[in-house]
Design brief:
Blueprint: H1 2-21, H2 23-52, H3 66-79, H4 95-109, H5 111-134, E1 136-137, E2 142-143, H6 161-176, E3 190-191, E4 194-195, H7 201-240
Antiparallel strand pairs: 1-2, 3-4
Helix pairs in contact: 1-2, 1-3, 1-7, 2-5, 3-4, 3-5, 4-5
């Protein structure tokens, strides 16, 4: 069952992310998120074993694609944050948070789901770290996405952000070293007084437009394919009559 879900998720989300990121960056994302998620879950399991002395933590499933699928949701949040989902009345930017919330609720009632919860949490977090700080952008020759729309606090509701923002700022300084991100009049970020290319709202808007266009083209193609099959079915039925 897990293999089936992972395969469907890879094929479905890959149609949206791979054309925008490129094949190389898409594969790099899968590798890094899967590898680092497995390492983090393994370290957590060992730590919990030494703390609680319960052997159940030694048999936690470390390998798995759930972390990558969670990371894919973060990628959708980055590319088409304001896109309304066709099957739910929510915006795409809330997909990672909603998936984690549902997983936490389900894990309370089922032990099997609880064993995969750390994988999803680490997958979401590492996916965000990769896209925020490590992903190389060919159009700007920079790494990451420093826009405010993709900050860590955007994973939480508005009322939680005053508490999350100070913690996120400390984390930002740890990962970025001496890089100072100061919003200028145009809303861009600066490094030593020089605006970073690709960090202004224009670049972020272009990225969202590309993602929305790719999603719309894929949905249109699916609708046309479904309509074509319907017409063929009706034609065959007419000929049989």
């Amino acid at each position: 069952m897990q293999l089936f879900i992972s395969t469907i998720g890879l094929l479905f989300v890959g149609k949206l992310l791979e054309p925008i990121w490129g094949s190389r960056e898409f594969l790099k994302f899968i590798f890094f998120v899967n590898f680092l998620t497995s390492v983090c879950v393994f370290i957590t399991a060992i730590a919990m074993y030494y703390i609680t002395k319960q052997e159940i933590y030694l048999y936690m499933p470390v390998a798995g694609f759930q972390g990558v699928l969670s990371g894919f949701l973060v990628g959708i949040k980055q590319i088409v944050p304001d896109q309304d989902l066709w099957f739910l009345k929510i915006k795409a930017k809330w997909l990672p948070s909603l998936a984690l919330l549902v997983s936490i609720i389900v894990s309370i009632f089922t032990t099997e789901s609880a064993s995969y919860l750390p994988t999803m949490i680490y997958g979401t977090f590492i996916g965000w770290i990769y896209l925020r700080y490590w992903q190389r952008k060919p159009e700007t020759k920079l790494r990451g996405d420093p826009s405010d729309e993709f900050s860590f606090s955007t994973f939480f509701p508005e009322f939680c952000r005053p508490v999350i923002n100070p913690i996120a700022t400390i984390f930002e300084r740890m990962l970025c070293g001496r890089r100072s991100e100061i919003s200028d009049e145009s809303g861009g970020y600066t490094l030593g007084g020089t605006t970073l290319p690709g960090s202004d709202p224009i670049e972020a808007s272009r990225r969202r437009e590309r993602g929305a266009r790719a999603l719309e083209e894929r949905l249109t193609a699916e609708r046309l394919a479904a309509a074509g099959k319907t017409d063929e079915t009706q034609k065959d039925a007419t000929e049989n009559v």
